[in-house]
Amino acid sequence: MRFLLHGSRSYNKAFCFSSNTINREKLWMLSFSTTSQEGRKSSEFLIHGKQKRFLADLSLTQQQIKNSRREFQLLLDNKLSRGRFPLHNNRKPWTSPLVQQTKRKEKLRVAVLVSKAALQFIHGITLHSEYTVPEEVKAAGFQICADELGSIVEGHDVKKLKVHGGIDGIANKLCTSTTNGLVASEDRLKCRQEIYGINKFTEIPVRSFWVFVWEALQDMTLIILAVCAFVSLIVGISTEGWPKGAHDGLGIAASILLVVFVTATSDYRQSLQFKDLDKEKKKISIQVTRDGFRQKMSIYDLLPGDIVHLSIGDQVPADGLFVSGFSVLIDESSLTGESEPVVVNKENPFLLSGTKVQDGSCIMLVTTVGMRTQWGKLMATLSEGGDDETPLQVKLNGVATIIGKIGLFFAVVTFAVLAKGLISHKILDGSYLSWSGDDALELLEFFAIAVTIVVVAVPEGLPLAVTLSLAFAMKKMMNDKALVRHLAACETMGSATSICSDKTGTLTTNHMTVVKACICGDIKEVRNPEMVSSMGSQLPDVVVKILLQSIFNNTGGEVVINQYGKLEILGTPTETALLEFALSLGGDFQAVRQETKLVKVEPFNSTKKRMGVVIQLPRGELRAHSKGASEIILAACDKVLDPAGNAVPLDEAAVRHLNNIIESFASEALRTLCLAYTEIANNFSAEDQIPVKGYTCIGIVGIKDPVRPGVKESVAICRSAGITVRMVTGDNINTAKAIARECGILTADGIAIEGPEFRNKTPEEMNDLIPKLQVMARSSPLDKHTLVKHLRTILNEVVAVTGDGTNDAPALHEADIGLAMGIAGTEVAKESADVIILDDNFSTIVTVARWGRSVYINIQKFVQFQLTVNVVALVVNFSSACLTGNAPLTAVQLLWVNMIMDTLGALALATEPPNEGLMKRAPVGRNGNFISNIMWRNILGQAFYQFIVIWYLQTEGKGLFQLEGPDSDLILNTLIFNSFVFCQVFNEISSREMEKIDVFHGILENYVFLAVITSTIIFQFVIVQFLGDFASTTPLTFKQWLFTVFIGFLGMPIAAAIKTIPVGSK
Q: Where's the P-type ATPase A domain (predicted)?
C-alpha cells in the first residue's frame, strides 16, 4: 500500500498536517477499533477533508481526494515499502539538519499512523450490499438497527445510504413518514425507545453527602487539630482516666466534626442546586412534526424517525439526515474544530448532534439519539468540570491567603511565648527534667491554641460566602425569570455601567400586528380583520394575488393545523403578523404554496436586512420576491404598482412620496417592511444569487409592537442607578427614536445615529460620540460589536448586552455580561450569553442588575464582619499570650467562633435580599476597590471597641465581678468567651448595613438571618451552661449573662456612631 501526498500551492511544505487532522484520524482509528466486527465489515475508509468528508473504498483506486489545504491520492494497488515514503514538494527543503530530522520524524509518524489505519481497515473490510436485520428489531416492526443508522450518519456513508434506498428508504425502515412524522401512539413510542434508546446523555451521578464530608476532612488545619485531639485523648485518659481525661480531646473532636458536617452540608446543598440549574440550562424545545401536526417538543423526547424543523441559530438535537431545505450551512466546530461551515444538501445529507445551523433552514429525519450519536460518544469521554471560580472568588482567595500567612506568623509566636512560659516555670521550680502528663497536656493545649489561631485567621468562609450568595441569587433570579448560566455574571452585573438593549421583544412586547398598509399608493388603517378584509375588497385581484404570493412564499413562518384542528401560525412575531394579515385578506396558505414551486430561499440576514425567494409559477416562469427594511427594498425597486394594479416606473416624486410614508409610519413607532417582486429569466439556477435590483414595489406595511409595561420605569431606575441604557436596533431611525422617547431612553441632549454613519466614524470621533449616543438604528451585528468593544476598552465601562439572533453572538461574547432572550433567542445566542432572560423583558434585566448589586454588597458585608472577628481573635489571643502567658480563648472556643463567623455568618449575611436603595447608588465599575474605606472604618472601629472590652475584662474582670477561689480563672475566661461571642452576634446585626444606622429594616422578612442568630444564641447558651467539660466553660449566673449580653449589645450604638464618621467612598 502506498500513500503519495502532494503539497498544494498554498502550502509550501510537502507534508503539513494540522493538529485537528491528526486528532480526527486518531478519533477515526479509535472508533474503528471499538466498532463491532459486523460494523467493521460494512465500514468504509474515511478520510476527513476540511469542508467535506469523502469516502474511498477499494472500488475508488485512482480517485483523488482534494480539499482547500492538501490533496490525497490513495493508491491501494501497492504496499508501502519499508523506509520509503515518496513525497513531492514544490520547494527545496530546509538545510538545517535538526529541522530535517524533526520533519522526517513527523512525516514517518504520520505515515505510520495513516497506513496503520488503512491496513487495519483492509483486514476488516468486506463489501456488502446485503444487510441482516437483527431479530429483536424485526420483531418490533422495524427494518434497520441503531448501529447501522449510526454507521451511516457518523461515517457519512453515501454508498450505504443508497443501499438502504436513500432517505425515503431509511424512513420506511423506521416506520415513519417524511411529511407526517411518527405515529405518536404510546405503545409504539415505547417500543421505539426500547430499540433505539432515548435522546439523553448519561449524566455523571451526583456526588454523595459523604464525599463532601471526606473533602471537608482534607483541610490541613483540621487534620492537625484532629491529631491534637487524638494525642490529648491518649494523654488525658492515661493520666486522669475516663471520662475526665477525655473531655479536652472529645471537645476538639466534636468541634471538628461540627465544622466538617456544616461545611459538607452547605457544599452538598449547593451541588444539588447547581444540578437543578444545569437542567434548566439544557431545556431546549424544537419544532417537530408528529401525526401530521407540527408541534413544539423537548429535545429529550426525540426518537429516531421524528421529523425536525431546523432554522438559523438552532442546535442540531440528534444525528439525522437532510430531507429538504434551503441554503443550509452547518457549524461543526464543536465536533471537528474546523471553523468553516459545512454545506448540507441532498448530496451531503448528514447532520450531527451538537452542531449548529449557521444559515438556512431545513427538515431533518432523526436517525440516532442519545449516547449513540457522535456528540454522545464525545460526551462519554469527557468528565464534567465544576463551575470556574468567579473573579470575586479569586480576589477573595488572595485576601484569604495573605490573612492566613499573617495568622500563621501570629500562631507561631503565640505558641513560642506560651511554651516559653511553661518551660520557664519548670526551670524556676527545678522540675524541668521531670514532665508529667499534665505538663504534656498543657503543651498540647498551647499547640492546639496556635493551630486554632490559624483556623480562625484563615477566612475560609470568604469563598463559601461568595458561593452561597451567588447560589442564593441564582435561585431567586430563576424565580424572577432570569437563568444565570455563568456564576461570574451575577457579581459582574452588579458593576454594570452600561446596557445596550435590543428594541424588538425586549423593550417592546414582541406581539406584532399589521396596523397600517400602503398598497397601490393608498394608505389604509388595518387594525382588525374586518378592516383588512375591507381593504382587500378594494384592491385589484391581481394585486391581492401577488401580495398573498409574496407573503406566503417569502416567509420563515408557516400556517399549520394543530392537533385540535385549528389554524396555528408558527414563526417569528414579524412573520406571524404578516401571515395573520394575509389570512385576513382571505388567503389560503397551503393553496398558494402548492400553486408554485420554491426554487431558492435566502433566509433573513441581519447584515443584508432582507430575505428573498425565487418561485416557479404554474406555467414555468420564474419570479423573485423580496422583503425587508423599507429603505433598502425601496432602493432596489424601479417600478411600483399603481391603483389599477399595473407596474409603472418609479420616478423621483413617487420615491419621495413612498419615503414620506415610511417616515410617517416610523414616527408613529411602527416597524416598516417593504414587499417587492420581479420577473426573472428561466435560466436561473439554485446556485445563482437572487437579484438585488430591478424590483416592483408591491407595498409597505407598518407593524405595531407596543412598548412593554414597566419599561419606562425600569429605564428611569437604571438612570438613577448610574447605568446608561442604549437602544441598538435594526429598525428605521424614526421608529427607533419614537420607541426610545416612549421608553425614556432618548433624552433632549442624547444622540441617535444610523449604523452606516456610525461605522464610518474615526476612533477620535467615536470617543466624542459614544458617551452621548443613546440610539443606534439600522445597525449591523458588527456595529453592535464595535460599540460594545469601544465602551469596554476605551471608555472602561462594564457593559451588558442583550441579543436574540445568531448574529448577536459576537457582541454577546465581547460584552462583560451577555443577556440572551429566552423566547425569541436562538440556541447560538443563548450559548454565547451569561444570563438568559426567560420572559424577554427589559424589566427582568433591571432585576438582574439589582441582584448583582445585592450579591456584591452582601459579600462586602460578610467580609467586613469576618475581618472584624479575625482582627480581634488574633490580637486578643496573641497579646494575652505575650503579656500574661495564657490565652483566654481555648481551641474549642475558637473553633466555635470560627463556625459562627465562617459558615453561619456567610449564611446570614450572604442571603440578604436586595433593597430599593441599591439602585440609587452609583455602580462600582471596573476599577472599584472591593474593601472600601467605609468597610475599613467599620472594621477598625468595631475591632478597637471589642479589643478594649476584652482586654479590660482580662485585667480587671476578677475585681469587677468579685471573683475569688480556684474557679475564678475559669469563670473569668467564660465571661470573656461569652462577651466575645455576643459581640459577634450584635456585630452581625450591625453589618446588615454598612452606611445606614437603621439596621433592623426588613430583618423580620429575612428568615435565614433570624434562624442563624437564634440558633447561635441557643448553642452558645448550651455550650456555656451544659458543655463546660468540653468547652472549658462554667455555668454563669443571670447577672453575669446580662452583663455579657449588654457588652455585646453596646457594640451596636458604637457601630452606629462609627458610621457617622465621614470617609471617602473609594
A: 284-381
